[in-house]
## 1
Amino acid sequence: MPRPPFLDQIALVTGASSGIGRATVLALAQCGAHVALAARSVDKLDEVAEEVRRLGRQALAVPTDVRRRADVSRLVRQTLATWGRIDILVANAGAYIRTPVPAMRVEHFEESFQVNFYGALYLIVESLPAMLERRQGHIVLISSMDAQKGMPLDAPYVAAKYALRGLGEVMRQELRPYGIFVTTVFPGRVDTPLIDYLDVPRISAKIPPANVAKAIVRAVRRRQPEVIVPRYAKALVYFNTLSPRLGDWLVRVFHFEGWDRRTRNSQRQ
């Protein structure tokens, strides 16, 4: 029987109570890792931790609001106190905040950045010294396809995810000499509670969180710098790079931004 690829490695995953985070926690545990789980929902977090234990792996559930640096610092301290190291760090916690540009306010962006960018930055800053000391580790940043091609109505979300993408670009280059690898993941529409109210066109149908988790595991094993999932989403990136006008046209024609079911229902009433 082959040796699990992450046997007895220590992983820390934020946003772990549902969606991509939960799927990633279980995928890492199935690959042999012990996992520290962080999210705001205590009950759901405990449920996922119990699933990890049923897989024969250790789990540490730490209720965490990534918007609060003190919470993130406590999360990292407890993880290091329990296992002494962090081998795989997955900055996944996110919030989908959107508004039409004519109605946007600074507060929309502050809210988006607090979760989608600073939540990841706090985690990195708190965890990096231990990785640098060991000259070993792998950091996974969960960005979004919105950071490859911005979608209408998504300005606050897009801005924060683009910032995370840029941070990943620099970190990947600077940390490699220290033995630390960085992967930025760009998921398309994923079937998670984050966008359960959003209807999307068939051409960009929501994919299961497990698909993203598998891509994350594969990326860590192969030390891939960037991952776009699903793979066919690369076509939009290609066309947008070839011609931004063509990219805009494709978004407009296929209505890639989707339809808010709550708004559509209220309009019908």
Note: The two ends are 59 Å apart (CA to CA).
## 2
Amino acid sequence: MGTVFSFDVRGPVDAADAADALAQAVAWLHRVDETFSTYRPDSPVSRLGRGEIGLDDCPPEVAEILDMCDLAAQASHGYFTTYPGGRLDPSAMVKGWAIEQASHILRRAGAVNHCVNGGGDVQLAGTAAPGRPWRVGVAHPLRPGDLATLVTGSDLAVATSGTAERGPHILDPHTGRPATELASITLVGASLTMTDAYATAAFAMGGAAEEWVTGLEGVEAFAVTASGGTWHTPGFPHAPQVPALSIRPSV
């Protein structure tokens, strides 16, 4: 998927069970990559995009992802798209979904306290230690080495879209040009699949994202504008339906 994944598994959990679950999660991510990677010309998604095969010829997960993409596109008034740049590329949905499913694999194996991180987007389960929440630092897109915000909590998802790592790569589907109003936007919710997809859409919206995210149930946002200013949704720092969440904006 063109990015790095990492796992942080905390106790209590049987070491053998954790090792087996990690192996399953890594195998799952490789399977997702083989199915959905637009970097692989032989992946089902690449072949589907070129019209070489039909949807019925693809693994069933492809139809599942495309259905979720349609829902995200409708919810975001078209700012989420499965065709960025004019070609089939559901990666903005796939990554969060893959991370969340990897988290489910760990949880089913008894690793109830863990963090799965894919390119800076994370699904957190349980706590970092008894009585100690997870802490997620969000890189400042305009000041390398600094944090824009710090998210702490348990059982939550954190997704950031921005220019810090890859430059202006997210297009506004309505204009076809790179979105430039925001430098980054971080969304916090319970489930990374849609939280990550919505973060992509919100970045493409620019300033209009504040009102849109405010209307989303169980999701909150913190944004850094291209000029270095910040804004956050009214529910900050306590997102509905996300237990034990607190967020400290930068000063």
Note: Residues 5-249 form a domain with the T-fold fold (CATH 3.10.520.10).
## 3
Amino acid sequence: MKLFYTPTSPFVRKVLVVAHELGISGEIELTFLRPTPTQVDPTLSPVNPLSKIPALVLEDGEVLYDSAVLCEFLDTRAGGRLIPRAGPQRWRTLRAQALCDGILEAGVAVFYERHLRPQELHWQPWLEGQLQKARGGLDALEEAAAGFDPLHVGLDQICAGVTVGWLELRGLLGDVRAGRPRLAAWYERFAARPSMVATAPPV
């Protein structure tokens, strides 16, 4: 399989952490790209018409994209270890993924606004609205961290770990662990996992 990726993308990292946790990272060839929201990538767009990463090319040439789809595919391929197949825990896991994706989408929007748009054109109320969403999502993760299973890593924890890691990398919200002691204590342990260390983006 071939994965189109950028090492600083949290959505890519989520897929890579999943692959490492499942023990199948060696089956994935990485192809570096750095698409931007302002220009279609001529290499990526024939693979993913949305010109977004991650995108995964399977052995038979079929292409999958969107990190949630890729995580579900890899977990199913490996026997279903990270996403419960049924029951309340499945929906809690998928809800946690949606929460983390929403935090990241708000954060990425702020990052691009600040780094790609001229400063005099920044829309401050919109920026603050996105930051409020991210802060609210982190507060929800603080509550969710109390229920993370210390004996079994699932997609919910992977998503949370990648989200906290990316926010700390970009520094958009200051100290995201401050005032969130359960999330901070959990992340301190989770960030030391081999899958997180192996996928850490360059500083």
Note: The helical segments are 10-22, 67-77, 88-116, 124-145, 155-170, 181-190, 194-198.
